[in-house]
Amino acid sequence: MKNTLKYILIAGIGAVTFSSCHRDYLSPIPQTSIADVSAFSTVSRVQAQLLSIYSALKNGNFYGGRSVIYGDIRGEEFINETQNLITGSDVWAENPTNSTTAVTTLWAQAYYTINCANVFIDGMNAGGSAVVGSALAANYIAEAKVIRAISYYTLLQYYARPYADGAGSKPGVPLRLTGLKGAGYSNLVRSSVADVYTQILKDLNDAEVALPLNYTGTTAAYTNTTRVHRNTAIALKTRVYLTMQNYASVITEANKIVSASAPFTATTGVAHALQSDITKVFVSPYTTTESILSMPMTSTSGDNPGTQNQLGYYFSPTTANGGVGNGEFSLNAAGIIANVGWTVADKRRTFVKQSGSGATLKNWLVKYNAPNPYTDYVPVIRYSEVLLNLAEARARSTSSIDAQAVALLNAVRNRSDAATTFTAANFTTYTDLVNAILTERRIEFLGEGMRNNDLMRLLQTIPAKGIAVQKAATDVGYIWPISSNELNLNTLCTDN
Predict the structure, then answer these.
(1) From CA 222, how far away is CA 116, in angstroms rounded?
(2) CA spacing 20 to 30 A to 80: which of 13, 42, 109, 222?
(3) What number is the average pLDDT over the span 330-341?
(4) C-alpha distances in Å from residue 449, one per residue of 150, 180, 214, 274, 491
(5) Residue ranges in 23-133 assigned as alpha helix (H)
């Protein structure tokens, strides 16, 4: 990816309206070139600019694939099968360099997305808000802020020391909050981890009060899944606060969208709830009320992750082995699939497929089953995560075998394994309960990019897998180096 990517002017989108077929909502196709001064001059141009931010977020190098994939293959659940540097073998082995494909492209696409959001917010403040009216302007700016928050949060999980290491005092990433429209604006020091989290939470808090409770109309289910609304901002705050080990705030936020008792549902905004069948979340139409935010994909050229970026391509076996992918990463036989508590009756076991036998036996994740061009929606956050975030926060904050925490854990386990129900008697200490919740997260979010976040936030050692050695929190390589492109362009940026 070119070094100048983050300086691209976000002003070349033609007239695209919200009345288009919903498959095009998040991938507006440029039809004409317009000048920067007129990029926010009409309602359709403002709307197109907003949708271009979503398009940047769902790029295959970001939340369309690779940022999710890296979050899993850094952990212990997968074994690299191809030794292909392009598809993350160095990420899996915990030895990427400043110029590694993963390091440079994820950094570039994250900042490209941030810049899209910044240019949009600047443009709205400069006149776009008057074009669409104050109510829609507040909605649109809030959407941009949520996407900016997601992008900065993701950067911190790979390129900065965890918040728990020094309460956020270590170097984070450059905090760019205004749009870059040309060369000469690259120099910026790295803000502290705490300062970046402060901005992330400011964006999410600002967005919460400006976003709609839900979207309505004939495409409401689709739009409530693929565009951010009030509950999206709240759900993301539970993730951010959990990462910061601010458990009291996790509880405060989660209580806004989780009922006090089972069945746990959101009683305001989008009616989020667990689906009775977990497998329905990962098949068309992908728009269940469990899916708080997902990245939509279609077979239209340019509206899917693209070559070697897709989740199915990485995790599913080849067609010869009964899959739809390239068999890049098999499941580690010593990983979570070996957990005896994850019973064969658990519906989530249907996401695990075997090929071969004896010495050639391998296990694969088939959660993503759409064949080439891989049109599976990519999950960003689901309601089950909010429930487990709340469960963990309650157990940790009370240092007890909290009854609601057990009930929340059961809600997630029982919907896939009705025969397994936890009781307080199953846990000797609250730490046992916390460990059970962490194990449930490994099962529930396998292949959804969460494992790296959980290891980092708790400063846990990245376990060994296959030929890859373990990586302790104090080891070089526990976090990634800064992109060589950033270091070349930004003389004030220091490396890890």
Answers:
(1) 23
(2) 109
(3) 98
(4) 14, 29, 26, 19, 32
(5) 43-57, 66-73, 89-92, 101-123, 129-132
Residue reference for tokens 């008057």: 130
Strand-pair category, 190-192 with 329-331: unpaired
Token pair belonging to 75? 């952990």
What is the secondary structure of 87-114 as a DSSP string? GTHHHHTT---TT-HHHHHHHHHHHHHH
Among the listed residues 44, 86, 82, the one whose alpha carbon sits nearest the alpha carbon of residue 61: 86
pTM score, whole prediction: 0.93
pLDDT on residue 12: 29
List the structure tokens of 401: 């075998």
| pLDDT (tens digit per residue) in 56-71 | 999 999 999 999 999 9
Q: What is the pLDDT of residues 338-379, one digit of tens each?
A: 999 999 999 999 999 999 999 999 999 999 999 999 999 999
For the chain, the first-to-last Cα distance in angstroms comes to 21
The length of the chain in residues reads 496
Which domains, ranges and CATH numbers included, belong to the chain? 3-309+375-489 (1.25.40.390)
What one-letter code names the amino acid at 294? S
Count of Cβ atoms closer than 10 Å to residue 340 Cβ: 5
381 three-state secondary structure: strand
Residues 6+ apart with CB under 8 A from 258: 264, 265, 266, 386, 387, 390, 408
Largest distance between two CA atoms of the chain:
68
pLDDT over 70 (residue 337): yes
pLDDT band, very low/low/confident/very high, at 37 (cuts 50, 70, 90): low
Which string of b and e fits 234-248 if b means at least 16 CB within 10 Å?
bbbbbbbbbbbbbbe
Percent of the chain with pLDDT over 90: 90
